[in-house]
From TrEMBL:
It comes from Miscanthus lutarioriparius. Pfam families: EF-hand_5 (PF13202). This is EF-hand domain-containing protein. InterPro entries: Centrin_CML-like, EF-hand-dom_pair, EF_Hand_1_Ca_BS, EF_hand_dom. Residues 14-49 form the EF-hand domain.
Amino acid sequence: MAFMRYRALPQGELTVEEFRAWLAQFDADRDGRISREELQHALRSINVWFAWWKARDGVRAADANRDGGVQGEDEVARLFAFAQRHLHVKITQLGYY
């Protein structure tokens, strides 16, 4: 079994681009959408407790069309808001988000 090394979430305040780049490395099937399992893997990489639960809640909060994943500008903006509120991630330069 091969192990992949992921970049850590940068410390301090993040830009939208940094958050997207960090999250994109967990898009295992490269379909441009983040599933609950992929978000769970991302949260585990930064040692979030109850990663499965928070991933489920994050996708529920962000998934506007209820297709089971996060894709598109609107849903990504919702995931940013979830990360700020529940994961205590500080994202700057949100623009219209």
